[in-house]
Design goal:
The complex is a heterodimer of chains A (669) and B (320). By secondary structure, chain A is mainly α. Chain A has helices spanning 2-23, 30-54, 78-101, 114-127, 131-149, 156-184, 192-197, 202-220, 229-235, 238-263, 269-291, 296-323, 327-362, 373-376, 378-391, 398-410, 419-450, 458-461, 468-486, 488-494, 496-503, 530-552, 577-592, 619-638, 647-668; strands at residues 59-63, 72-76, 556-559, 596-600, 611-615. In chain A, the strands form two sheets. In chain A, strands 1-2 form a two-stranded antiparallel ribbon. Chain A has a two-stranded antiparallel sheet with strand order 4-5. With 320 residues, chain B is mostly helical. Chain B has helices at 3-37, 47-56, 68-87, 103-121, 127-158, 163-172, 179-195, 214-217, 223-248, 260-286, 296-317, and one strand at 60-63. The chains are: A mainly alpha (669), B mainly alpha (320). The interface between A and B is large, with 90 and 88 residues.
């Protein structure tokens, strides 16, 4: 039944997209479109929730569409239901937000048809049960989000973002096509059930793993395939940015889990080595790069890269434990990864919504022109602060819980028999710790520069609070961040069927633990209780404040800024975003990011303005794409003479190629 | 609600009040010893109590554009530090709420307080607040990974991240002397120095603008807000002392039933340990000079390297 509902939701969303084409020309059209998307997403959410809650068995459906004679297969199991839940919760919140935010869109026709189609594509990826419909849905999702990225087509950087995105998405899909080709093997049966039944040999399985890592990893944003993400995510309208960062990267993770954990069968241990290495590098590089951004939305996009790295660390640990048949530790690692998937969807959507509110209120994405918004947008400021604390992995919020579980999984690492893993797991633990600490610095910067201090521009000074729908979406997400942080046991139990299917074991039941603690392995080993911590914090903080106010003094006087006796009246004297990041840039950036600072200081007496310029290069561009692009150019220049041949020579060439290929096939057989 | 539960609650409450009451004294002792080492007479040992009392009764002066975050932060910082300090076993293990947060969560709780304080430093929009916040977060981003690696190494030796269990395993002496433990202690001391803004990383007594880190962040605070921040700083120092005592010299803690004798022995040994550490800290501080800001990565990097080495040894030696 829920699978049926899921497919109807997809159909309904496609219908809404069609309605968007028709209605989009009218200025009021955003309201019904987003409202309908909200309702359909809530229905999908309810279906996914019901499937997991009732513990229903997997359901399959076949539709006579798609390839002739094959049709399309759809299936809803626990794993799909979990990601369907994530996608529809994110979709519902984005639609709710857009009920208010959508009115600011200048060209509705460029957004409204694609937004429901994009939601439909993401739902369909999760539901599909054969390679063809999976790939069609995947491409549909990519293309509809591409249309949304270039919806504001007048900005040249958006066009570039769209180009890079399209290129990377094509490469990703290409590798997935190849992966499915290897998986289907000689039988040519493209249904997932057939792939699950046949076990490819070690070489073929390794090849599929690498192809999927590249294909799903490029969509999720793994280093070095992340380069499109910080360009494309900020370019879209903010509710779409939230969906791309919060949900679509999770669909990519779903693709990875579905193929590597479900279809491929038993993993080899060296897979986890690669996943752990890339995950750790992604986490650290993503957050370091986020720290150096001045664009608020681009900072959030790079922070997504970091969080994807954290999820992949959890998945890598899960693979490592599963390869050694350690079911319970594998369950712990996978639980951590899945919880982080859920948590990241919550707080990253919240943060992008907040950024969208800032952008509509001020027209600025550059943090160096913001400041003091806590006074101008007081409610948005509260929600955004909760999001910042959650993404920085601070207790008692939800980001901490999933990172804590990942740390617990890392601490079981020495039990693994492989030496390679024993070397890399502590290093990955150090990288995870580093990325958590740097994320706190990054979000102190984001919040401190954008929301605190004094306004740095007239636009920031004149900002107005955002509308009630946007606020409702933000506060629902903030409340969920709190709920998932203080009652993680319920969430762990809820996803236990998913983990059972992936790891072959599950964590102990958490609901019955004393005082609702979470106890991953055993209470003598580790436990954490967000609820008790929060109550302690509230009690001690509030009691202290009351005692101080009652028995000491509550006298308060407002005065000018002191600033050690030298207050500077101009807001330009404040610390800016790039000056905040300077120490960390100096420590980590000079070699890694090739940071170059140029200072142009006028001599005394000169009247021109001084300039300070920082240039930060993404190492992926420098080491990976730059050489690749140059190689392609060189190769095409070398092959240029082939363009100017006579027809006879072309025919000879074709004939020679044909003979060569036939000989290869003959040798192969 | 039977008698045993009340007894347990009382033991937990005793620890909460103990760290709170002791914290200014610890600070006072370090200041006194430091002054004596510099051949000054120094303020009386109980001066921090008087300072906090005085600050509490003064009116708080706020900048015109200070937000609610600025006013809430001192209490939040105090609450996080106090709760974290109360969760570190001092005189006894297995207190009533000791399971609610393990060592990783305690480190993260301190990070919550620091996050709030760094934001408050940027709230009014001054250059000094920004410089303090920026440098504090830089130090934290170097110190926190090192601290977590220390946590990893002790957790791997003990097979748990629960402080109470760790302490009981270390008390039983089944662990013995380990190279990793020594490296972890070395790294822990470095991290503790950086986290508590002591020389050579930061100078708690400075008011020279460009050398301030922690003091620059809290520059605009006054009155009861400043009292809360000072109390939190004292609590944090006590917390790190207790943590060092709990992890590396856990002997003397009440391990079994909490009867009067064992609690008294635990309290006495705890006080003695804290006192020794409060004497050792200023001796170390007066024998080195403060570093330039961009020397910190070397200082904390060595802590990181030592802790990483400890963890690597443990990962690799598991099968030997």
């Amino acid at each position: 039944m829920p699978a049926f509902v899921g497919l109807w939701c997809v159909a309904a969303l496609l219908g809404i997209a069609a309605a968007g084409v028709i209605l989009g020309r009218w200025s009021w059209s955003w309201a019904p479109i987003y409202f309908a998307s909200l309702v359909v997403s809530l229905a999908g959410l309810a279906a996914a929730f019901w499937h997991l809650w009732a513990g229903l068995p997997p359901e399959t459906l076949s539709l006579p569409v798609g390839l002739p004679g094959v049709g399309s297969k759809f299936r809803l199991d626990a794993l799909a239901a979990f990601f369907l839940l994530v996608a529809n919760l994110g979709g519902a919140m984005a639609s709710l937000y857009a009920l208010g935010y959508g009115r600011h869109e200048t060209s509705q026709l460029r957004v409204l048809p694609f937004y429901p189609a994009y939601l439909a594509g993401m739902n369909l990826v999760v539901l599909s049960d054969d390679a063809v419909s999976f790939l069609i849905a995947w491409e549909f999702m990519s293309l509809s989000s591409w249309a949304l990225v270039v919806s504001n087509h007048r900005a040249p950087e958006n066009i570039r973002a769209g180009y890079v995105y399209l290129l990377m998405a094509s490469i990703g899909t290409l590798t997935l096509v190849l992966a499915f080709g290897v998986l289907a093997g000689v039988t040519g049966d493209y249904s997932f059930a057939a792939m699950r039944a046949q076990h490819p040999d070690a070489v073929a399985a390794g090849l599929v793993f690498l192809l999927v890592l590249a294909g799903a990893g490029s969509k999720a944003g793994l280093v070095p395939l992340h380069i499109w993400l910080p360009l494309a995510h900020p370019a879209a309208p903010s509710h779409v940015s939230a969906l791309m960062s919060g949900v679509m990267t999770k669909i990519a993770i779903y693709g990875f889990i579905r193929i590597v954990f479900d279809l491929l069968g038993g993993p080899a241990w060296w897979w986890s080595l690669i996943v752990l290495g890339i995950g750790g590098a992604t986490a650290v590089l993503g957050v370091l790069y986020a720290l150096m951004q001045q664009d608020l939305k681009r900072l959030l996009a790079y922070s997504t890269v970091e969080n994807i790295g954290i999820v992949f660390i959890g998945l890598g640990l899960g693979l490592a434990f599963r390869a050694s048949n350690m079911a319970v530790p594998a369950a712990l690692a996978i639980t951590a990864a899945l919880l982080h998937v859920f948590n990241h969807m919550l707080f990253k959507s919240l943060l992008f919504f907040g950024a969208g509110a800032v952008v509509t209120a001020t027209g600025e994405r550059n943090m160096e022109n913001l400041g003091g918004l806590i006074h101008r947008l007081p409610r948005t400021a509260v929600a955004f602060l909760i999001g910042c604390a959650a993404v920085s992995a601070l207790p008692p919020l939800n980001g901490f819980v999933s990172e804590w579980l990942t740390f617990q999984a890392i601490l079981i690492g020495p039990e693994l028999p492989q030496w390679g893993l024993r070397f890399i797991i502590p290093a990955v633990g150090a990288m995870l710790a580093l990325s958590a600490a740097l994320a706190a610095a990054c979000f102190v910067k984001a919040y401190g520069i954008a929301f605190l201090g004094r306004p740095r521009s007239p636009a920031a000074e004149a900002a107005r609070e955002t509308d009630v729908f946007s606020l409702a979406a933000m506060f629902i997400l903030a409340a969920l961040c709190f709920a998932a942080g203080i009652l993680p046991g319920a969430a762990i139990d809820f996803i236990a069927p998913v983990v059972q299917g992936l790891a072959g074991a599950r964590l102990p039941v958490q609901i019955g633990q004393a005082w609702t603690s979470i106890v991953p392995i055993a209470s003598s080993r580790s436990s954490y209780n967000g609820l008790v911590i929060l109550s302690f914090l509230l009690a001690s903080g509030v009691i202290t404040a009351l005692v101080v106010h009652r028995f000491a003094t509550r006298a308060t006087r407002r005065s000018d800024i002191w600033d050690c006796g030298y207050p500077d009246a101009t807001p330009a004297a404040q610390y800016s975003g790039s000056s905040f990041a300077m120490p960390i840039r100096r420590v980590f950036g000079t070699t890694m990011f090739h940071v170059r600072e140029t200072i142009d200081m006028p001599r005394p007496g000169e009247t021109r303005a001084g300039h300070f310029h920082v240039k930060v290069t993404d190492p992926a561009w420098r080491w990976f794409y730059g050489p690749a692009a140059r190689a392609v150019l060189r190769a095409s220049a070398a092959l240029n003479w082939l363009q100017f041949l006579t027809i006879r020579r072309y025919l000879t060439l074709v004939f020679a190629t044909l003979v060569l290929l036939l000989m290869v096939v003959a040798a192969w057989r | 609600m039977n008698l045993a539960m009340i007894w347990e609650l009382a033991a937990q409450a005793l620890q909460m009040l103990l760290v709170l009451a002791l914290a200014p004294l610890v600070l006072g002792v370090t200041r006194k010893i430091k002054a004596r080492l510099l051949r000054r007479i120094g303020p009386p040992t109980w001066q921090p109590y008087i300072d906090i009392w005085k600050l509490l009764h003064k009116e708080a002066v706020l900048a015109h554009n200070a937000s609610w975050l600025y006013r809430v932060t001192p209490y939040l910082l105090f609450a996080t530090t106090w709760v974290a300090a109360a969760l570190v076993p001092t005189y006894a293990i297995n207190l009533m709420f000791s399971w609610s947060a393990d060592l990783i969560a305690i480190v993260a709780l301190l990070a919550t307080g620091r996050f709030a304080l760094a934001l408050a430093g940027m709230d009014v929009g001054t250059a000094f607040g920004g410089i303090g916040s920026s440098r504090e977060m830089m130090i934290a981003s170097l110190a926190e990974p090192a601290m977590l690696l220390v946590v990893f190494s002790v957790a791997l030796i003990a097979g748990t991240t629960q402080l109470s269990t760790m302490a009981s395993i270390f008390i039983n002496g089944s662990v013995g002397l380990r190279v990793s433990l020594g490296l972890a202690l070395f790294a822990f001391v470095f991290v503790a120095i950086a986290e508590n803004a002591r020389i050579p990383v930061d100078n708690p007594a400075t008011h020279l603008e460009l050398t301030m880190v922690h003091e620059a962040m809290v520059l605009e605070y006054s009155g009861r807000h400043l009292a809360m921040i000072e109390a939190a700083a004292a609590l944090k120092l006590t917390l790190y002392f207790s943590l060092l005592a709990c992890l590396f010299v856990p002997f003397g803690m009440a391990t079994g039933d909490k009867n009067i004798d064992s609690v008294l022995i635990g309290l006495m040994t705890y006080l003695a340990k804290i006192l020794v550490l409060a004497v050792l800290l200023p001796i170390g501080e007066t024998s080195v000079a403060k570093m330039r800001v961009f020397r910190y990565p070397i200082f904390l990097g060595s802590a990181f390297a030592a802790a990483a080495l400890a963890v690597f040894l443990l990962f690799v030696s598991r099968s030997l």
